[in-house]
Amino acid sequence: MPSMTRQRGFSLIELMVGMLVSMICMLAMMAAFAVYEGKKRTTTSGNDAQQNGSYALYTLERQLRSAGSGIVQGLNHGLWGCPVTAYTGGKKVLPAASLPAPFSASGWPLTTRLVPVLIASGSKEGSDVIGVVSGDSALQVFSVAVSSTPSTHGVVVSNALGFFTGDYLIGTLSGGTCAMAHIASNGGTATQVPTTTLVLDTPNSPSTGLQTATNVFNIGPSPSFTLYGVDPSSGSLVSWDLLQRSVDNQPAAITPIADGIVMVKALYGTQASGSSDLTWKQPAGDWDISKLTAGTNAAAVAMSQIKAIRVAIVAQSRLPEREADYKGDSQLTLFKDLPTDVRYSVPLDTQFRYQVYETTIPVRNAMVSQFY
Predict the structure, then answer these.
(1) CA 60, CA 77: separation in Å to the nearest integer?
(2) How do residues 64-78 score in pLDDT, each as one tens digit?
(3) 245 and 278: one domain?
(4) Nearest alpha-carbon partner for 154 in 214, 215, 209, 206
């Protein structure tokens, strides 16, 4: 009969001790992993906020630096500040019938006036809307007299140098208004207009052409009539083309620029005639957009005093922090180095991290308008 070999395993006490040691090790690893994940989330979210904020500021700064190009040279020819009529694809887009959200609630006027840059205040705790108007003509930016208008589809000018097929025109009309028209494109590469007769593209020009125009200004093939603001539903900086031009055969739509943007605030840098001092103004009171676009002499004087824009952009991290790891300030102050009457206090969610980007942008085109 074979002998029975005694087999021996772990006792219950040994198993319990082993499980306890394993649980302690797992808890230690999980604690280390939680700390690591928290640090990674903080780093990643902070980097996202930095990138989004810096890109949003870059985009706005690039547009604002070109504000007024091709327009301020018409300051003494009835161009600057005049209400403009424009058509795109046979549809009247200016004055606008309505504006999409978030611009519809900003108080931005439906009638667009040719001013390099304007600001619609979003009140103390709301985001501002910034509107930029500029042209991009490479050769012709000065006033050109209209010789005759033989038909609604054409206009004869005194000098066609610098006018190319596909360029947009602004005509100052006899009634004190302005109209945008489009030189017919040849369907290919833009070419110099061969004669002083500028043939207009009917769907993108007024039905009456520029029949009563006294002067025309070439604002290039891709002028900017753009609004910038923050969409609170998506937390992003967005833009809207007031001319409602299609992109890649797609209908005009709100264009997202940068995610994680929760606030944009802007100030006017104004300079009175004969003064060398720059004074900062909030877009409120006498500098409210409703007063600046009222078409009065006071509005014209005020608009001519805008020489710079100061912008502050607030970017927010994507993910909230755990309260045990981080609890930030409940508000922040924008434009801290300026007098208290032009500062803004912005309420914050204490579980998110924020980055603030501020810059001063000179409206350079407005600085040379006195010479034209």
Answers:
(1) 29
(2) 998 988 887 766 777
(3) yes
(4) 209
